[in-house]
Design brief:
Its EC number is 4.2.1.-. Keywords: Membrane, Transmembrane, Transmembrane helix. The chain is an all-alpha fold. It has one domain. Helices cover 85% and strands 0% of the residues. Helix 2 crosses helix 4, helix 4 runs antiparallel to helix 5 and helix 5 packs antiparallel against helix 6. The protein is elongated and about 60 Å long.
Length: 167
């Protein structure tokens, strides 16, 4: 095996065999697998409603409801994701394999919570609330990309492990 290839194999080493077994056996993996695409669909609908409001001034209520729903779906996936991380890695957050994803998730949660604060206090007007939501959504897109990258790395690791087992 060449030096470069050995280094690449280390990069995709997200799970030990025991962590992979726990990941594959826990119901929380299925929960995450259902919630992640659900959250993305809610995000897309909400993004459309927010942009519509910002462009036309119409549909504030629909946009607001969609952002609140998106925020609660986010909270749900974050709590269940922390449980998943505890089952798989032994810590609720900031396990080595997902440290930076969890760090960025804190920004995503902060921005969504800031939106709720702005909505509930009225300290920020409707347009400002929508811009906070857009900032939260931009952070969410980056965070989702981080997790998709890790999913890809996990699949590559699985393929590599199967190839090694067959060799």
């Amino acid at each position: 095996m060449s030096e470069g290839r050995g280094t690449a194999a280390k990069v995709v080493q997200l799970y030990t065999p025991e962590e992979r077994r726990r990941r594959d056996e826990t119901v929380w993996t299925v929960v995450q697998g259902v919630l992640a695409p659900l959250q993305f669909v809610v995000f897309l609908v909400s993004l459309g409603l927010v942009v519509r409001y910002l462009l036309t001034g119409a549909g504030y209520e629909a946009a607001t409801i969609s952002i609140v729903v998106k925020t609660f779906v986010l909270y749900t996936i974050m709590v269940t994701g922390a449980i998943w991380e505890k089952v798989v890695f032994g810590k609720y957050l900031f396990a080595k394999a997902f440290f930076w994803e969890d760090v960025f998730s804190m920004l995503v949660i902060f921005l969504h919570t800031l939106y709720l604060w702005a909505l509930l206090t009225g300290n920020v007007g409707p347009t400002g609330q929508m811009f906070i939501a857009l900032a939260a959504y931009a952070a969410y897109i980056i965070n989702a990309a981080q997790f998709l990258w890790k999913l890809r790395m996990a699949r590559l690791q699985g393929q590599s492990d199967q190839a090694e087992a067959m060799a």
